[in-house]
Structure formats: structure tokens, C-alpha cells
Design a protein that fits this description.
Elements: H1 2-52, E1 54-55, H2 59-67, H3 73-83, H4 85-93, E2 95-109, E3 113-126, E4 129-144, E5 147-155
Antiparallel strand pairs: 1-2, 2-3, 3-4, 4-5
Helix pairs in contact: 1-2, 2-3
Amino acid sequence: MRWVLTGVLGLAALALAAAVLVMGLDLRRLDQAEAAGKEALAAARAVAPDLLSYNYRTIEQDLERAAEHTTGELTKHYRELRNGPFAGQRRAEQKVQQTTVVRAAVERAGPDRVEVLVFVDMGIATGGRQEFRQNRARLVMVREDARWLVAELSTLIGKA
């Protein structure tokens, strides 16, 4: 009878040890996600104005600067904007778009991928007309090497 009790207690101890191990690993993953969220949030706040602002006088340089904060298909998209009709249309319209981040928050976070929602104020000048808009954008931030880059960008208007 004693060996049955010892066996049951041993199994209970193993189950408890396994539960502690699983909880420890889960806590580690959550800590990594929280740290990644803070880093990516700061990066998103810093790069959002470059991604969403331009001046018709310097549009090629503005779009190239924006592309430097991106990765994958989004980089390709910004380079196409720079070399395509978008830049010419903005020059013809004499359009300036200046974006300021008002608020930002993490929607989802993992160790290497974080979704950030940014609320922005946009000042838009076209020719002699000026307007002000409030907008929001979702930036999917991914860690590449030691740097957070934007892999996806979507706004109320649509995906970029």
C-alpha cells in the first residue's frame, strides 16, 4: 500500500512540475511579446509620419525615405509609387501631406510580429486649398535583425 501512495505522490509531483514548466514557458513568451510590443509601438510612432507624409517638391526622396522603413511587398509598393504616376500627379497638384501621430496602441503582439493602430492628424495642402483630416492606420511591424520594419500598412482608404 505504501508503494502505491508513493507512486501516486510521485506522479502528482511530476504533473505539478510539468504544469510549472508550461506556465514558465508561457510567461516567458508573454514577456517577450510585451517587450516586442513596446519596441514596435515606439518604432511605429516614429516611422508613421514618414510613411504617410510627402511634399510634391521632394516626393521621390520622401517615398524613398518611407521605403527604408518597410520590408517585402510594401517596399516594392513605395518604390512603384516613387517611379509611377503617383509622384507626377502629386507634383501636378502641388500637393503636400503632413502627418502627425496623435495616439498609438498595440493590437496584437508576438515576439517578432506586432500589429499597431495609429491615430493621425493629416494636414493636406493642394495648390492654395488646405484641409485637415483625422485618420487611422494599422501597421504590421516585423523584426528583421535588430530593427522593426513595416510589412503591411492599411488605412481607412485601403491597403498599401
